[in-house]
């Protein structure tokens, strides 16, 4: 397992914690809230086997006026996002406490953790040849990252019970679409 990384997509306080950006806006889902407790044993196990844990962090860069630079499409979908949400170095930007610390952290400004980030460089330098992908949302950041790993010929196993979306239908359809580019498994199967 020393060539394997657990890639935790966007399990940040601003997404999961009730005091975070999404929690304050009432944008929560029980399936998302349950992820940290489900993933934490896998992260500990993988480290014990010589693997690494990498967390990705959705990031809203503050502009010169302090307001976050938000893509118009995202602004339309999430009008509640405001100054300080997902800001680099903030509490909301951080990986949830149950999963800390990650061995490596990657800031990202788009759905894919590969788009304009240092993720590929970290994987190469750390000797990672395959990924176990988990996190949120299955139909957004997880899907985009897994597809970008596929075009880079990095084998990925998507952990069905380690991912979630804001609806079960979106989660299930995303997993079905990923089956053509990745293996789909469970946390227990990955540990076995």
From the structure above, extract its key features.
192 residues; alpha/beta; Rossmann fold; six-stranded parallel beta sheet; 6 strands
What does this structure look like?
The protein has 192 residues and is α/β, with parallel strands linked by helices. The protein has a single domain, classed as Rossmann fold (3-Layer(aba) Sandwich), CATH 3.40.50. β4, α7 and β5 form a beta-alpha-beta unit. The longest helix is centred in the N-terminal third of the chain and has 14 residues.
Question: Summarize this, please?
Answer:
This protein is of the alpha/beta class.
Number of separate domains: 1
Q: Given the C-alpha coordinates, what overall shape results?
A: globular
The CATH topology, please?
Answer: Rossmann fold
Sheet/helix structural class = alpha/beta
CATH hierarchy: architecture: 3-Layer(aba) Sandwich
Strand order of the largest sheet: 3-2-1-4-5-6
**CATH superfamily annotation:** Isochorismatase-like
Q: What is the number of helical segments per DSSP (H or I, 4+ residues)?
A: 9
């Amino acid at each position: 397992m020393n060539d394997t990384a657990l890639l935790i997509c966007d399990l940040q306080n601003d997404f999961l914690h009730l005091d975070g950006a999404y929690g304050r806006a009432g944008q929560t889902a029980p399936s998302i809230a349950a992820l940290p407790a489900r993933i934490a044993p896998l992260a500990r196990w993988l480290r014990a086997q010589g693997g690494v844990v990498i967390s990705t962090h959705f990031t809203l860069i503050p502009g010169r006026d302090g307001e976050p630079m938000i893509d118009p499409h995202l602004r339309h979908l999430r009008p509640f996002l405001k100054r300080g949400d997902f800001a680099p170095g903030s509490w909301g930007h951080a990986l949830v406490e149950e999963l800390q610390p990650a061995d490596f952290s990657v800031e990202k400004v788009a759905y894919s953790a590969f788009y304009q980030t240092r993720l590929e460089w970290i994987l190469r330098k750390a000797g990672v040849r395959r990924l176990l992908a988990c996190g949120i949302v299955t139909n957004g950041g997880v899907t985009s990252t897994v597809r970008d790993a596929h075009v880079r010929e990095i084998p990925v196993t998507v952990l069905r019970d380690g991912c979630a979306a804001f609806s079960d239908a979106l989660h299930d359809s995303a997993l079905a679409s990923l089956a053509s580019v990745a293996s789909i498994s469970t946390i227990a199967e990955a540990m076995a």
